[in-house]
Design brief:
With 167 residues, the protein is mainly alpha-helical.
């Protein structure tokens, strides 16, 4: 579904298209989701939950805050390079969720950003938290721009994104 939504857009992708991609009839999707909007909500909620859990794991496993930040950046770069369709779908299709679904996704995303900001705040205690939050969101946005930029081999792009985000 993520690939189809990214390629064609949410509006141009039908349940039958999604079913065909996974080798079932379109109506078989209704065994798992009440409709296309519920599928989109599950997709965006799942990715937000995975990022939040991964971010928390990075911090918990790190020896210090510098290592935690490095691990967070590394995780975000890997996600962006592995899951560009999810980035496109989130950026373009979040508006198709109802208010409650969108609120749930945004709440998870705020928690994820807060994981980063908490780490950066410990590294830079004299910088106001709103400024740190803006810097974190900009760094994540930079990394998440990968689906829209020219193609570099992953071997070259991953360290470039990592270094730029850390800076």
């Amino acid at each position: 579904a993520a690939r189809l939504f990214a390629e064609r857009g949410y509006g141009a992708t039908g349940i039958d298209d999604i079913g065909a991609e996974v080798g079932v009839s379109g109506p078989a999707i209704y065994w798992h989701y009440s409709g296309k909007q519920a599928l989109l909500a599950a997709l965006l909620t799942d990715v937000s939950e995975r990022l939040l859990a991964g971010g928390r794991e990075c911090v918990a496993a790190a020896a210090d805050d510098g290592d935690a930040l490095d691990a967070l950046v590394h995780m975000q770069v890997e996600f962006a390079l592995d899951e560009p369709d999810l980035i496109v779908v989130h950026a373009r299709e979040l508006r198709h969720l109802d208010a409650e679904q969108a609120h749930a996704v945004r709440a998870l995303q705020r928690q994820y950003v807060d994981v980063w900001v908490d780490v950066v705040e410990r590294l830079h205690p004299d910088v106001p938290r709103p400024r740190l939050a803006a810097a974190v969101q900009a760094a994540i946005g930079l990394v998440n721009s990968t689906p829209y930029v020219g193609r570099l081999p992953r071997k070259a792009l991953a360290p470039l994104l990592h270094d730029m985000a850390l800076a």
